[in-house]
């Protein structure tokens, strides 16, 4: 059995509902490699999720490994950039429990741009002027991508004016195992998915293993 990794992308906005304790919005189980019950890898996996629940909350990101080859478990945890340390800890603890329940004998990997498990979400309501709205959405997200990759947290959030008093709100974020250049490349890639994901929609998200964005016509970020 080769050394593999546990990959945890943990964000309050994307994989777990904003209300802590709710069901995850989405989860993926890798079919590339598995382990069996009572395998030496299993206790390393449990220790790893506990370790990440301690390491991640102070900065919103944690990464590490537990054990020795060939049963070494690697992982990372990411909380959204506006989430408090307390909520981040709760999220990582709950996500660690959920991933062991939903993917009980699965191994996965991380460490480079990986959007193989990408998913889209969108608001069901359409905007009245889709062409203008789409342009403003891409413009905002592109600006935020440029801010995110230059930020040590690889995260940016902001807003722009739409029509009259209406505003558009957005965020972009990468996992912090990426280099700044890979973060920019990852965000540019998913922003180009806008026509497939959210054409003319009042809100939308593209979430990959390595980066994500969200936009809405209402405020959705926490004030820290």
UniProtKB/TrEMBL annotation:
Keywords: Repeat, Secreted, Signal. Residues 1-21 form the signal peptide. It comes from the Eukaryota. The keyword Signal applies. CDD domains: Gnk2-like. Gene3D superfamilies: Gnk2 domain, C-X8-C-X2-C motif. It is found in: Secreted. Residues 115-220 form the Gnk2-homologous domain. Pfam families: Stress-antifung (PF01657). Belongs to the cysteine-rich repeat secretory protein family. PANTHER family: CYSTEINE-RICH REPEAT SECRETORY PROTEIN 38, CYSTEINE-RICH REPEAT SECRETORY PROTEIN 38-RELATED. This is Gnk2-homologous domain-containing protein. It comes from Hibiscus sabdariffa.
